[in-house]
Amino acid sequence: YVSKKEMDAIKKLKGQENQRLAFSLLVNCKIRNAKRGITDNRVKDNDKIIFADANIKRGTEAKQKMLRKLMELGYVEFPKMGLDILITFLDTETDFSVAKNRAITIDSFDDFILDYYAYTGSKVIKCKECGKRVLVKGNKTQYCTECAKEMEKKRARQKMRERRNSVHREGVK
After folding, report:
1. Pairing status of strand 102-104 against strand 2-3
2. Spatial CB neighbours of 132, under 8 Å, sequence gap ≥ 6
């Protein structure tokens, strides 16, 4: 679960990328805690994983700049050299057994950033073909990337069949 207090802290950040990065750090920390059965506010993942989870595509220097910005704002600390990031806005006091304290319930760790998008008002749908959750980017979004490519191939094959059939019929006359 992500608490309202944690989401309020994230909302205070300027820029959606900074907010997504903070959310990704928070959820990665919570996943690590759940796996280990501990309450620790550290993330020890590679920054490639954290930025990929946050759906941020930047160069190494830009990533470091974003992490430094979060540190300057007091959201994270770097107690040791390396991959150890201390999350300072982790809410350890909220009682998550009370539903009203939960801002977001994460059901899928594969695409948890979509929970963030949905919380912030972006439209998230299920792919018509496979059921995978997808962020709606335009008014025609119906499929995930993989299924959209497959559907395009199906349409191209169907057009080719129709052309061949029409040419065949014309040749028979």
Report:
1. antiparallel
2. 111, 126, 144, 147
Rounded (5°) CA angle 26-28-32: 115
Q: Smallest Cα–Cα separation from 135: which of 112, 118, 152, 110?
A: 118
Helix, strand, coil shares of the chain, percent, nearest 5, are 50, 10, 40
Contact 50, 30 (CB under 8 A): no
Largest Cα–Cα distance of the chain, in whole Å? 82
Q: SS3 of 160, please? A: helix
pTM for the complete prediction? 0.82
- How many CB atoms within 10 Å of residue 35? 8
Alpha carbon separation from 8 to 56, 76, 108, 133, 145 (Å, rounded): 21, 16, 22, 25, 32
Q: pLDDT by residue (tens digit) across 92-130?
A: 888 888 888 899 999 888 889 999 999 999 999 999 999
Q: Are 151 and 58 in contact (CB under 8 A)?
A: no
Each residue's pLDDT tens digit, 69-100: 999 999 999 877 666 889 999 998 888 888 88
